[in-house]
Specification:
The complex is a heterodimer of chains A (about 375) and B (about 250).
Chain A: H1 5-8, H2 11-28, H3 32-38, H4 45-51, H5 70-80, H6 86-98, H7 101-106, H8 109-121, E1 126-129, E2 145-149, E3 152-163, E4 170-176, E5 186-192, E6 198-202, E7 213-224, E8 228-229, H9 235-271, E9 273-274, E10 277-278, H10 283-311, H11 317-342, H12 352-363, H13 370-381
Helix pairs in contact in A: 2-5, 5-9, 6-9, 9-10, 9-11, 9-12, 10-11, 11-12, 11-13
Chain B: E1 2-6, E2 9-11, E3 33-35, H1 37-52, E4 57-64, H2 69-78, E5 82-87, H3 94-108, E6 112-116, H4 127-135, E7 139-148, E8 154-161, E9 164-171, E10 174-178, H5 190-196, E11 201-205, H6 237-246
Parallel strand pairs in B: 1-4, 1-6, 4-5, 5-11, 6-10, 7-10
Antiparallel strand pairs in B: 2-3, 7-8, 8-9
The chains are: A alpha+beta (about 375), B alpha/beta (about 250).
The structure holds flavin-adenine dinucleotide.
The site of flavin-adenine dinucleotide has 22 residues of chain A, from strand 1, strand 3 and helix 13.
């Protein structure tokens, strides 16, 4: 048995990995730099993924999903991570792991038919709109307000750093609906992006260039009350639940990307001769490669531990919060070390270590920064 | 109608092939195995016919070790209906393959046999032709386009020949072998993979078929192509001519 076989070693998992690999390697990898220049993914990629059953692996077959457990989804994320464009991987995983889980778990039948089914088919792209100019880590401090008028919500406010800003067909919005009710005063609402009063502005990021991150402004944006996901008083709690899915993404992907960069760097170091000797043959560098592999192996195992718990349906909050900090730190350590090993080449965008260096900087900030994760862990451990 | 598609398990074309020390076979450890790419095209063609003509059944057939069920499952996941695996551990030569297929055609009674034009491992390029001969069926090899008649009694097959295309009209039942440009095979979708798990995969020991599969040939030796070496710069045309003459011995 090789590592991970207990969770995704079955014949079906292997066949599925092959399908995702073929798709990623033939449809995404050759266009990786094109998506950087576009600053977004070509939306025609989504229906192709939908046809292969990649966008609703865990969701109810009634809405077009596959009804499978997280182990299949982990295979999907691992292969997607190898698409050679962290922005593209993020954009797609926003659709599958950050904007749809709450809808799939808590949404009404009608709402799921209207928004989940097209998302699973790849006909719609979703985005998650939580962060605001005035509130990121402190989610409960958001100010965007949805007011009930007849059978509609009227929404005012703004959202910041929203992935898929230009490509999204709808947002999974977290808004204040009852300012007096504390944590019971938030709702998750689906907002189609073609609504009057909704505008966006793109941001110029240092990395994840293949994704479109932007700012949204809401001016009297109206949506039906029936667009509310689940319980209108439990939007905050539903979003906290959805964050667990979001945080699993870097946990699963970071070790995969780390290993990929490690391999590319080792190959270079074996070929690159400095002072009459391949770089990789110098003991100081051998130690670097070993140090990195120790960390990568540990991160892979930590990721699998989280995957196992999620597959078994256990509460994985403690592990997920710790693993997010650990796995992303490993990726940053590996990327940084590999840039050094590449030398000048590692400072150019075309170099995989260079891109990982910049892109991995995001993962200890987005979806719950390290400091926030550690606060969660401290609370659970009662330290 | 029923289409029989023949599938061979071969090393992935991307795999770096290593020879065994005695040099008459390849090292099979750490080799990734796939459906012979031309057979994959044959499966795809059968599925496209099925999508157009309701009631079509696509049956896969492979001859080989138990591990070939992996490739059959992939074909089932692409959309084939069921599969037959004729089990044997011995090397099966093209003529033996053709005889096994002939035998199974007797029980399966397909109207169309689709095969790859050749397997990329031994590149024999003769099993399809032999099947047609044994059955006394028409054959259209190296197909780049297959159009089935509306009455399903015949087909028009376009073949890639030197410097152009040739279109044949053949009555069914017939044997068609697929060339590279016939189509682009689909990937197995996730629903397809999950459905494949429940589809029938029948195993038949080769011995039960009573077919003469005794080998007629023996591989004496395999050799890998010479290792590619880096290029070399020469100083002048004079030197180039000299090197081509003295060292490369091409002029
Ligand atoms: C490329 C990109 C894509 C993104 N995509 C989305 C998206 O699609 N949807 C979405 O809603 N958001 C998205 N975000 C926003 C992201 O989730 C936030 O940036 C993140 O949650 C941090 O919030 P903030 O930027 O407001 O930082 P702040 O909350 O202002 O935090 C600033 C710093 O203070 C630290 N800090 C916070 N609290 C404490 C504390 N108690 N003790 C010590 N230190 C603390 C933080 O860790 C951080 O280092 C994205 C961000 C980026 C950069």
């Amino acid at each position: 048995m090789t590592a991970g076989d207990d969770i995704y070693g079955s014949a079906e998992h292997l066949a599925f990995r092959e399908t995702v690999r073929k798709f990623v390697q033939s449809e995404l990898v050759p266009r990786a730099r094109e998506f950087d220049h576009l600053g977004r993914i070509d939306k025609t990629v989504y229906p192709k993924m939908g046809a292969l059953g990649l966008l609703g692996i865990r969701w109810d077959p009634q809405y077009g999903g596959q009804g499978l457990d997280y182990s299949y989804h982990a295979v999907f994320l691992e292969e997607l991570a190898l698409c050679d464009n962290a922005g593209v991987a993020m954009g797609i995983s926003v659709q599958t792991d950050m904007a749809t889980p709450a809808l799939a778990r808590f949404g009404s039948d009608a709402l799921k038919r209207k928004y989940l089914t097209p998302a699973i088919r790849g006909e719609h792209v979703g985005a998650i709109a939580v962060t605001e100019p005035g509130a990121g880590s402190d989610v409960a401090a958001i100010k965007t307000r949805a007011v009930r008028k007849g059978d509609e919500w009227v929404i005012n406010g703004s959202k910041m750093f929203i992935t898929n800003a230009a490509t999204a067909d709808w947002l999974c919005l977290l808004a204040v609906t009852d300012p007096e009710a504390g944590y019971g005063g938030f709702s998750q609402i689906i907002v189609p992006t073609d609504r009057p009063g909704l505008t966006y502005q793109l941001l110029d990021k240092i990395g994840n260039k293949g994704s479109d991150t932007g700012l949204f402004f809401f001016e009297d944006v109206r949506v039906p009350l029936s667009n509310t996901i689940g319980d209108p008083h439990r939007g905050f709690q539903q979003q906290m639940n959805q964050f667990q899915d979001e945080r699993m993404v870097p946990i699963v992907m970071a070790p995969v990307v780390s290993r990929q960069v490690w391999e590319a760097t080792l190959k270079h170091s074996q070929e690159r001769v400095v002072f009459g000797k391949p770089l990789a043959k110098m003991q100081v560098n051998q130690h670097k490669f070993v140090d990195m592999m120790i960390q990568i192996t540990a991160a892979e195992e930590f990721a699998r531990r989280c995957i196992r718990k999620v597959v078994r349906g256990e509460d994985a909050t403690l592990d997920i919060s710790m693993a997010k900090v650990f796995c992303t730190a490993v990726e940053q350590f590996v990327a940084n070390t590999c840039v050094q090993l590449f030398g000048g080449a590692g400072y150019c965008w075309e170099n995989p270590a260079a891109r990982a260096f910049v892109d991995s900087r995001l993962v200890s900030i987005g979806g719950g920064a390290d400091e926030v994760m550690k606060q969660v862990v401290a609370k659970i451990l009662q330290v | 109608m029923k289409i029989l598609v023949c599938v061979k398990r071969v090393p992935d074309p991307e795999t770096v092939i290593k020879l065994t020390p005695e040099g008459a076979s390849i090292v099979t450890d750490n080799v990734k195995w796939v459906i012979n790419p031309f057979d994959e095209i044959a499966i795809e063609e059968a599925l496209r016919i099925k999508e157009k003509a309701a009631g079509t059944e696509v049956v896969l057939l492979s001859i080989g070790q138990k591990t070939a069920q992996e490739q059959l499952r992939t074909g089932l996941a692409m959309g084939a209906d069921r599969a037959i695996l004729v089990l044997t551990d011995q090397v099966v030569e093209p003529l033996a393959v053709a005889r096994v297929i002939e035998k199974l055609v007797g029980t399966e009674k397909p109207e169309l046999i689709l095969m790859g034009k050749q397997a990329i491992d031994d590149d024999s390029n003769c099993a399809g032709q032999m099947v047609a001969e044994l059955l006394g069926w028409p054959q259209a090899t190296f197909a780049s386009k297959v159009v089935l008649g509306g009455d399903q009694k015949g087909a028009q097959v376009t073949r890639e020949v030197d410097g152009g295309l040739e279109t044949l009209a053949i009555p069914l039942p017939a044997v068609v072998t697929a060339d590279l440009r016939l189509n682009e095979p689909r990937y197995a979708s996730l629903p397809g993979i999950m459905k494949a798990r429940k589809k029938e995969l029948k195993e038949i020991p080769l011995a039960e078929l009573g077919v003469d599969v005794a080998p007629r040939t023996r591989i004496v030796k395999l050799e890998t192509p010479p290792k590619r070496t880096g290029g070399r710069k020469v100083g002048s045309v004079q030197e180039l001519v000299q090197v081509l003459h003295d060292e490369a011995k091409v002029i």
